[in-house]
Every structure is written in C-alpha cells, then in structure tokens.
Amino acid sequence: MKRFSILFVILVSVFACKKDKKNTETVEETTDKPEISLYILDGGNIKANNLNIFAQGETYKGESKLLANAYYVINHPKGKLLWDTGLPEGIVGKEPYTTPDGAFTISRPDSLKNQFAKLKITPKDITHIAFSHIHFDHTGAANAFSNAKWIVQQKEMDFINSPEIKNNAFYDVSSFATLENKEVVNGDYDVFGDGSVIIKSMPGHTAGHQVLFLDLPNEGPIILSGDIYHFRENRESGIVPQFNFDIPQSQKSIEDFETFVESKNARVIIQHDLNDFNTYNRRMY
C-alpha cells in the first residue's frame, strides 16, 4: 500500500509555562507561545498474520490485520524531536518480508532520508530522539541520529543491558547502537521545558514504554499512543497483547493512560491503527 510520506502538518501557537526540565511541575507561567509543527511520516506496513497474539485467549483467533507504522517529527523553537523511526531501513523498496514464525509480514516503501528531504530537513537537524519503546519496528532508522540527544527511560536502559534482550526477535539493539548522547529519565519528562511536549511513562508493553503528549490548542491536546494499543478494538476492550513485557503492568498503564486522556480531554492517535493513519492523511495533507 502506497501512502503519502507526509500525512499531516499542524501549525499552532501554544500557551505555555516554564517547567522544570526533569519533571512536569509548573514553576512559573509566561506569555511565551512557541510555534509547534507536527509531521506524521510513513515508517512502513505490518501485516499481522496471526492477530491473536495481540490479545490473550482466543479473542482474535484466525484473524489477520494490516497495521500502519508511523513515526513523527515535532518542531519546537528549542529543537526538533523525532518520535520513533519506523521499520528497518534495509527493507526499503524490497519485497515484503515474512518473519520466520510467520506472525508478521513487513515492508517499507519509502526511506526516512527521502521523506526528510520532502520536509527540507536532514537527520542532523534533529536535536532530540525518543522511542515509544525499543521494538525493532520503532527503531529501524535510529542510527542516522547519532548527534541527537536520546531520551530513554532508566527501565528501558536496564533491559537493554540485561541478558533478557539477547536472542529476542522483537529487539534489534544494533539499530540504535550509535545513540551515545543519552538523557536517561525516570518517569514523565518535559522535553522543551514549557509543557508543550511531554513524554509520559507508561511501562508494560516493554520495560520502559512511553507515550507522547502534545499541547496543540488549535487541534486540541493530542496523545501519540506508542503501543499501549495497536488498533481501535484493542482500546475499546482494553486488551493487552500476550507478548507484552509485563501484562499486569500493562493493565495498570492502560488505566493510567485513560485517566490522563480524560483529564486532558485529549485526542488519541493510535500509532499502528491504519484507520487513524489514513484519517489524518485525508483531513490534513
């Protein structure tokens, strides 16, 4: 499936307040209104041939589903944040690849470099990089951003350095091996210090899974879901995939996520949901 590389651009002025860089506690209100741009790009396609692994029991037995794999650039006066990077760059332009276990068929029709060129930016323009989590479909082009500050949860780093990650097909440590400029955090993190772009810790899918809150008044508050959900039906039923790192913790994060969404009256963009992906293409391109 071929889609536009740039799905939507939001240009807004944001009412902001100065925040401590290490947390989200408000220190002092200001009249600064940083202009923020959000670009959604195409990181490839994933066909879940065995959809039932996205649940427990036999909820989706015998079903398959095509998933999107978006990644994002957030422009801010203080820098540019890259959120996720899509599937491995090595599969760009090649025939779809099915994993040895048959669970997934993946493809990536367009490269990050090509999509960046259409935005008239280069990897060196990215000042910050963060992954919702370090599964291979989110870190596939990460090594192009060795100059950026990598914002990563301590629990995710602990897992990266543990024996548990070895021979686990969901991870490819080599795909982010060049990211040496680390900002290791514990919990929520205000990226630019003004409340407009906040990483929210939501562990469970992986040890240090996180989601991204954007304060975009012209469109309403938006939350990029990471993989707390993979498609709308997951969210409607609060379903946790059987392959999650910690299922009880995932269930707790789902509760925390929905409480936060309600408190902010936020719109949720489910990153892997193809309907969400295409909806914003039609509406905003």
Automatic annotation (TrEMBL):
GO terms for molecular function: hydrolase activity; metal ion binding. InterPro entries: MBL_superfamily_lactonases (IPR051013), Metallo-B-lactamas (IPR001279), RibonucZ/Hydroxyglut_hydro (IPR036866). PROSITE patterns: PROKAR_LIPOPROTEIN. Transmembrane segments: none annotated. Residues 67-272 form the Metallo-beta-lactamase domain. Keywords: Hydrolase, Metal-binding, Zinc. Pfam families: Lactamase_B (PF00753). Belongs to the metallo-beta-lactamase superfamily. This is MBL fold metallo-hydrolase. It comes from Aurantibacter aestuarii.
